[in-house]
Design goal:
The chain is of the alpha+beta class. Helices cover 46% and strands 27% of the residues. The chain is elongated, with a radius of gyration of 26 Å. 25% of the residues are buried.
Length: 357
Protein backbone atom coordinates (compact mmCIF):
# COMPACT_ATOMS: atom_id res chain seq x y z
CA UNK A 1 0.00 0.00 0.00
CA UNK A 2 1.37 3.42 -0.98
CA UNK A 3 2.02 6.14 1.65
CA UNK A 4 -0.90 8.15 0.23
CA UNK A 5 -3.24 5.15 0.55
CA UNK A 6 -1.94 4.51 4.08
CA UNK A 7 -2.68 8.12 5.04
CA UNK A 8 -6.20 7.97 3.61
CA UNK A 9 -6.89 4.73 5.45
CA UNK A 10 -5.68 6.11 8.79
CA UNK A 11 -7.62 9.35 8.20
CA UNK A 12 -10.76 7.32 7.46
CA UNK A 13 -10.30 5.26 10.64
CA UNK A 14 -9.85 8.38 12.79
CA UNK A 15 -12.83 10.16 11.23
CA UNK A 16 -15.12 7.19 11.86
CA UNK A 17 -14.28 6.92 15.55
CA UNK A 18 -16.94 8.04 18.03
CA UNK A 19 -14.08 9.18 20.29
CA UNK A 20 -12.82 12.73 19.74
CA UNK A 21 -9.07 12.71 18.97
CA UNK A 22 -7.03 15.91 19.27
CA UNK A 23 -3.30 16.51 18.85
CA UNK A 24 -1.62 19.49 20.54
CA UNK A 25 1.97 20.66 20.05
CA UNK A 26 4.38 21.66 22.83
CA UNK A 27 2.90 25.16 22.95
CA UNK A 28 -0.49 23.49 23.54
CA UNK A 29 -1.95 24.61 20.23
CA UNK A 30 -4.25 22.35 18.23
CA UNK A 31 -2.60 20.73 15.18
CA UNK A 32 -5.14 17.95 14.46
CA UNK A 33 -8.78 17.13 15.28
CA UNK A 34 -10.95 14.31 13.90
CA UNK A 35 -14.62 14.48 12.89
CA UNK A 36 -15.91 13.43 16.34
CA UNK A 37 -13.94 16.35 17.81
CA UNK A 38 -15.47 18.76 15.30
CA UNK A 39 -18.90 17.55 16.40
CA UNK A 40 -18.20 18.25 20.07
CA UNK A 41 -16.89 21.77 19.39
CA UNK A 42 -19.47 22.41 16.64
CA UNK A 43 -16.73 23.88 14.44
CA UNK A 44 -14.76 22.63 11.44
CA UNK A 45 -11.06 21.82 11.72
CA UNK A 46 -10.36 24.85 9.52
CA UNK A 47 -11.65 27.17 12.27
CA UNK A 48 -10.10 25.20 15.14
CA UNK A 49 -6.55 24.42 14.00
CA UNK A 50 -3.97 26.67 15.62
CA UNK A 51 -6.19 27.65 18.54
CA UNK A 52 -4.69 27.43 22.04
CA UNK A 53 -5.91 24.89 24.57
CA UNK A 54 -6.96 27.72 26.90
CA UNK A 55 -9.32 29.08 24.23
CA UNK A 56 -10.39 25.62 23.15
CA UNK A 57 -11.50 24.46 26.60
CA UNK A 58 -13.15 27.63 27.83
CA UNK A 59 -15.00 27.21 31.10
CA UNK A 60 -12.86 24.34 32.38
CA UNK A 61 -9.45 25.47 31.12
CA UNK A 62 -7.99 25.54 34.66
CA UNK A 63 -8.21 21.80 35.29
CA UNK A 64 -7.33 20.84 31.73
CA UNK A 65 -4.40 23.28 31.47
CA UNK A 66 -2.89 21.79 34.63
CA UNK A 67 -3.14 18.30 33.16
CA UNK A 68 -1.60 19.36 29.85
CA UNK A 69 1.34 21.12 31.53
CA UNK A 70 1.90 18.16 33.88
CA UNK A 71 1.79 15.78 30.91
CA UNK A 72 4.56 17.72 29.12
CA UNK A 73 6.65 18.20 32.28
CA UNK A 74 6.45 14.67 33.68
CA UNK A 75 5.59 12.54 30.62
CA UNK A 76 2.67 11.05 32.56
CA UNK A 77 -0.68 10.03 31.11
CA UNK A 78 -3.61 11.65 32.92
CA UNK A 79 -7.39 11.46 32.89
CA UNK A 80 -10.37 13.46 34.13
CA UNK A 81 -13.94 12.19 34.47
CA UNK A 82 -17.20 14.02 33.77
CA UNK A 83 -15.63 17.27 32.59
CA UNK A 84 -18.34 19.73 31.50
CA UNK A 85 -17.32 21.72 28.42
CA UNK A 86 -19.16 25.03 28.17
CA UNK A 87 -18.48 25.36 24.47
CA UNK A 88 -21.95 25.07 22.98
CA UNK A 89 -25.36 26.52 23.63
CA UNK A 90 -25.81 23.38 25.71
CA UNK A 91 -22.90 21.96 27.77
CA UNK A 92 -21.22 18.68 26.81
CA UNK A 93 -19.99 16.17 29.40
CA UNK A 94 -16.85 14.20 28.48
CA UNK A 95 -14.28 11.85 29.94
CA UNK A 96 -10.87 13.36 29.18
CA UNK A 97 -7.61 11.42 28.57
CA UNK A 98 -4.15 12.95 28.00
CA UNK A 99 -1.15 11.02 26.65
CA UNK A 100 2.35 12.39 25.80
CA UNK A 101 3.84 11.55 22.39
CA UNK A 102 7.65 11.46 22.36
CA UNK A 103 10.15 12.71 19.82
CA UNK A 104 13.32 11.13 21.10
CA UNK A 105 13.49 11.49 24.90
CA UNK A 106 11.19 14.51 25.29
CA UNK A 107 7.41 14.76 24.91
CA UNK A 108 6.82 16.61 21.62
CA UNK A 109 3.04 16.45 21.35
CA UNK A 110 -0.01 15.72 23.47
CA UNK A 111 -2.67 13.25 22.39
CA UNK A 112 -6.08 14.13 23.81
CA UNK A 113 -9.01 11.70 23.71
CA UNK A 114 -12.52 12.74 24.72
CA UNK A 115 -15.41 10.32 25.17
CA UNK A 116 -18.73 12.15 25.17
CA UNK A 117 -20.59 10.68 28.13
CA UNK A 118 -23.97 12.22 27.37
CA UNK A 119 -23.87 11.14 23.70
CA UNK A 120 -24.82 7.55 24.53
CA UNK A 121 -27.61 8.75 26.80
CA UNK A 122 -28.86 10.97 24.00
CA UNK A 123 -28.84 8.14 21.43
CA UNK A 124 -30.74 5.91 23.87
CA UNK A 125 -33.26 8.69 24.54
CA UNK A 126 -33.73 9.26 20.80
CA UNK A 127 -34.27 5.55 20.15
CA UNK A 128 -36.82 5.42 22.95
CA UNK A 129 -38.61 8.47 21.55
CA UNK A 130 -38.75 6.99 18.04
CA UNK A 131 -40.04 3.66 19.38
CA UNK A 132 -42.71 5.46 21.40
CA UNK A 133 -43.76 7.47 18.36
CA UNK A 134 -43.97 4.32 16.23
CA UNK A 135 -46.05 2.52 18.85
CA UNK A 136 -48.28 5.57 19.26
CA UNK A 137 -48.90 5.81 15.50
CA UNK A 138 -49.74 2.10 15.24
CA UNK A 139 -52.19 2.41 18.14
CA UNK A 140 -53.83 5.47 16.62
CA UNK A 141 -54.19 3.83 13.20
CA UNK A 142 -55.94 0.87 14.79
CA UNK A 143 -58.12 3.17 16.86
CA UNK A 144 -58.97 5.29 13.80
CA UNK A 145 -60.09 2.20 11.90
CA UNK A 146 -62.32 1.07 14.77
CA UNK A 147 -63.84 4.55 15.21
CA UNK A 148 -64.39 5.36 11.53
CA UNK A 149 -66.42 2.24 10.73
CA UNK A 150 -69.27 2.86 13.23
CA UNK A 151 -68.96 6.59 12.61
CA UNK A 152 -69.63 6.05 8.91
CA UNK A 153 -72.67 3.91 9.75
CA UNK A 154 -73.94 6.57 12.17
CA UNK A 155 -73.58 9.30 9.55
CA UNK A 156 -75.28 7.21 6.87
CA UNK A 157 -78.20 6.40 9.14
CA UNK A 158 -78.60 10.09 9.98
CA UNK A 159 -78.68 10.94 6.26
CA UNK A 160 -81.36 8.32 5.57
CA UNK A 161 -83.40 9.51 8.52
CA UNK A 162 -83.09 13.10 7.31
CA UNK A 163 -84.61 12.10 3.97
CA UNK A 164 -87.62 10.52 5.68
CA UNK A 165 -88.41 13.42 7.99
CA UNK A 166 -90.76 16.23 7.03
CA UNK A 167 -90.32 18.35 10.15
CA UNK A 168 -87.71 21.10 9.86
CA UNK A 169 -87.16 20.96 13.63
CA UNK A 170 -86.39 17.23 13.51
CA UNK A 171 -84.10 17.71 10.51
CA UNK A 172 -82.07 20.09 12.66
CA UNK A 173 -81.17 17.13 14.92
CA UNK A 174 -80.04 14.96 12.00
CA UNK A 175 -77.97 17.87 10.68
CA UNK A 176 -76.20 18.11 14.03
CA UNK A 177 -75.49 14.35 14.00
CA UNK A 178 -74.01 14.54 10.48
CA UNK A 179 -71.87 17.61 11.26
CA UNK A 180 -70.55 16.14 14.51
CA UNK A 181 -69.75 12.84 12.76
CA UNK A 182 -67.78 14.79 10.14
CA UNK A 183 -65.98 16.73 12.88
CA UNK A 184 -64.99 13.49 14.63
CA UNK A 185 -63.70 12.03 11.35
CA UNK A 186 -61.52 15.10 10.78
CA UNK A 187 -60.22 14.87 14.38
CA UNK A 188 -59.33 11.19 13.95
CA UNK A 189 -57.54 11.95 10.66
CA UNK A 190 -55.53 14.69 12.36
CA UNK A 191 -54.56 12.33 15.20
CA UNK A 192 -53.22 9.78 12.73
CA UNK A 193 -51.18 12.46 10.97
CA UNK A 194 -50.31 12.99 7.28
CA UNK A 195 -51.62 10.24 5.04
CA UNK A 196 -49.29 10.77 2.10
CA UNK A 197 -45.56 10.26 1.95
CA UNK A 198 -43.39 13.37 1.55
CA UNK A 199 -43.17 14.68 -2.02
CA UNK A 200 -39.56 15.78 -1.79
CA UNK A 201 -37.80 18.40 -3.85
CA UNK A 202 -34.64 20.43 -3.38
CA UNK A 203 -35.39 23.47 -1.20
CA UNK A 204 -33.76 26.14 0.93
CA UNK A 205 -34.56 25.56 4.61
CA UNK A 206 -34.32 29.28 5.36
CA UNK A 207 -37.05 30.15 2.84
CA UNK A 208 -39.32 27.67 4.64
CA UNK A 209 -38.44 29.13 8.05
CA UNK A 210 -38.93 32.70 6.83
CA UNK A 211 -42.40 31.81 5.50
CA UNK A 212 -43.30 30.44 8.93
CA UNK A 213 -41.75 33.42 10.74
CA UNK A 214 -43.77 35.88 8.69
CA UNK A 215 -47.01 33.98 9.28
CA UNK A 216 -46.50 33.84 13.05
CA UNK A 217 -45.15 37.40 13.39
CA UNK A 218 -48.20 38.78 11.57
CA UNK A 219 -50.51 37.29 14.23
CA UNK A 220 -48.26 37.75 17.27
CA UNK A 221 -48.69 40.62 19.79
CA UNK A 222 -46.39 43.65 19.22
CA UNK A 223 -44.16 42.78 22.20
CA UNK A 224 -43.39 39.26 20.92
CA UNK A 225 -40.14 39.37 18.93
CA UNK A 226 -39.08 36.58 16.55
CA UNK A 227 -35.32 36.69 16.02
CA UNK A 228 -33.26 35.03 13.28
CA UNK A 229 -29.91 33.31 13.83
CA UNK A 230 -29.25 31.48 10.56
CA UNK A 231 -26.19 29.70 9.22
CA UNK A 232 -26.16 30.85 5.57
CA UNK A 233 -23.74 28.08 4.55
CA UNK A 234 -26.36 25.33 4.99
CA UNK A 235 -26.95 23.70 1.60
CA UNK A 236 -30.36 22.92 0.12
CA UNK A 237 -32.05 19.74 1.33
CA UNK A 238 -34.64 17.36 -0.07
CA UNK A 239 -37.98 17.73 1.70
CA UNK A 240 -41.69 18.25 1.17
CA UNK A 241 -42.19 22.02 1.29
CA UNK A 242 -45.84 21.97 2.41
CA UNK A 243 -45.31 19.33 5.09
CA UNK A 244 -42.19 21.05 6.41
CA UNK A 245 -44.03 24.37 6.67
CA UNK A 246 -46.81 22.63 8.60
CA UNK A 247 -44.39 20.93 11.03
CA UNK A 248 -42.30 24.05 11.73
CA UNK A 249 -45.41 26.23 11.94
CA UNK A 250 -46.91 23.95 14.59
CA UNK A 251 -43.77 24.24 16.72
CA UNK A 252 -43.34 28.01 16.30
CA UNK A 253 -47.03 28.57 17.08
CA UNK A 254 -46.53 26.50 20.22
CA UNK A 255 -43.63 28.81 21.17
CA UNK A 256 -45.74 31.90 20.46
CA UNK A 257 -48.50 30.60 22.74
CA UNK A 258 -45.88 29.88 25.43
CA UNK A 259 -44.50 33.45 25.52
CA UNK A 260 -47.97 35.03 25.61
CA UNK A 261 -48.16 38.82 25.15
CA UNK A 262 -44.47 39.54 25.70
CA UNK A 263 -41.34 37.51 25.02
CA UNK A 264 -38.77 36.40 22.53
CA UNK A 265 -38.60 33.51 20.06
CA UNK A 266 -35.29 32.70 18.37
CA UNK A 267 -35.04 30.62 15.20
CA UNK A 268 -31.51 29.21 14.92
CA UNK A 269 -30.06 26.95 12.22
CA UNK A 270 -26.81 25.02 12.39
CA UNK A 271 -25.17 21.93 10.88
CA UNK A 272 -24.55 18.84 13.03
CA UNK A 273 -22.11 16.18 11.86
CA UNK A 274 -22.19 12.41 12.25
CA UNK A 275 -25.53 12.25 14.05
CA UNK A 276 -27.35 8.97 14.59
CA UNK A 277 -31.15 9.12 14.35
CA UNK A 278 -32.68 5.81 15.29
CA UNK A 279 -30.29 3.30 13.76
CA UNK A 280 -29.32 5.53 10.83
CA UNK A 281 -26.04 7.44 10.99
CA UNK A 282 -26.08 10.69 9.02
CA UNK A 283 -22.94 12.52 7.96
CA UNK A 284 -24.66 15.91 7.97
CA UNK A 285 -27.87 17.02 9.67
CA UNK A 286 -29.66 20.37 9.57
CA UNK A 287 -30.53 21.45 13.11
CA UNK A 288 -33.30 24.02 13.54
CA UNK A 289 -33.83 25.27 17.09
CA UNK A 290 -36.99 27.10 18.12
CA UNK A 291 -36.14 28.81 21.43
CA UNK A 292 -38.69 30.69 23.49
CA UNK A 293 -38.58 32.64 26.75
CA UNK A 294 -41.93 31.37 28.04
CA UNK A 295 -42.61 29.86 31.44
CA UNK A 296 -41.43 26.41 30.34
CA UNK A 297 -43.06 22.97 30.20
CA UNK A 298 -43.89 21.06 33.36
CA UNK A 299 -41.53 18.05 33.85
CA UNK A 300 -44.43 15.60 34.10
CA UNK A 301 -45.67 16.70 30.66
CA UNK A 302 -42.27 17.10 28.98
CA UNK A 303 -41.69 13.34 28.53
CA UNK A 304 -45.10 12.99 26.86
CA UNK A 305 -45.16 16.26 24.91
CA UNK A 306 -45.21 14.56 21.47
CA UNK A 307 -48.08 12.21 22.31
CA UNK A 308 -51.45 13.04 20.73
CA UNK A 309 -53.97 14.80 23.01
CA UNK A 310 -51.26 15.79 25.54
CA UNK A 311 -51.30 19.52 26.27
CA UNK A 312 -50.83 21.91 29.19
CA UNK A 313 -53.33 24.43 27.75
CA UNK A 314 -57.03 24.13 28.47
CA UNK A 315 -57.91 25.28 24.96
CA UNK A 316 -55.29 23.12 23.21
CA UNK A 317 -55.99 19.95 21.21
CA UNK A 318 -52.59 18.36 21.87
CA UNK A 319 -52.17 17.45 18.18
CA UNK A 320 -49.76 20.11 16.82
CA UNK A 321 -46.53 18.68 18.25
CA UNK A 322 -47.59 15.09 17.52
CA UNK A 323 -48.23 15.98 13.86
CA UNK A 324 -44.91 17.87 13.66
CA UNK A 325 -43.03 14.85 15.01
CA UNK A 326 -44.77 12.52 12.53
CA UNK A 327 -43.87 14.76 9.58
CA UNK A 328 -40.24 15.10 10.63
CA UNK A 329 -40.04 11.33 11.29
CA UNK A 330 -41.31 10.73 7.74
CA UNK A 331 -38.36 12.84 6.53
CA UNK A 332 -35.92 10.61 8.47
CA UNK A 333 -35.54 13.25 11.18
CA UNK A 334 -36.45 13.85 14.78
CA UNK A 335 -37.83 16.57 17.07
CA UNK A 336 -36.48 16.93 20.62
CA UNK A 337 -37.43 19.26 23.45
CA UNK A 338 -35.60 20.59 26.49
CA UNK A 339 -37.30 23.05 28.82
CA UNK A 340 -36.70 25.14 31.88
CA UNK A 341 -38.44 28.37 32.97
CA UNK A 342 -37.51 31.09 30.50
CA UNK A 343 -35.69 28.73 28.12
CA UNK A 344 -37.57 26.11 26.10
CA UNK A 345 -35.79 24.65 23.07
CA UNK A 346 -37.42 22.53 20.38
CA UNK A 347 -34.71 21.04 18.14
CA UNK A 348 -35.65 19.76 14.68
CA UNK A 349 -33.08 17.48 13.04
CA UNK A 350 -33.31 16.83 9.27
CA UNK A 351 -30.74 14.67 7.47
CA UNK A 352 -28.93 16.25 4.53
CA UNK A 353 -28.77 13.98 1.53
CA UNK A 354 -25.40 14.31 -0.18
CA UNK A 355 -25.97 14.60 -3.92
CA UNK A 356 -23.06 14.07 -6.30
CA UNK A 357 -22.87 16.56 -9.17
Amino acid sequence: MSPVADYRLFQSVLDNLTTAVLLLDRTRRLVYINTAGEMIFAESSRQLLGISSRDLFRGCEGVIEEDLVRCLDTGASLSERNIVLEILEHPVTVNFFVTPLYDGTEPANILVEMHQVDRHLRIYREEQLLEQQHASRMLLRGLAHEVKNPLGGLRGAAQLLDQELDSVDLKEYTRIIIEEADRLRVLVDRMVGPKRLPNKSLLNIHKIIERVRQLVQAEAPPNVKILQDYDPSIPDLYADSDQLIQAILNIVLNAAQAVGDKGRITLRTRIDRRMTIGHQQNKLVVKLEVIDTGKGIEPEILSKIFYPMVTSRAEGTGLGLSIAQSIINNHGGLVECMSSPGDTVFSIFLPLEIVDD
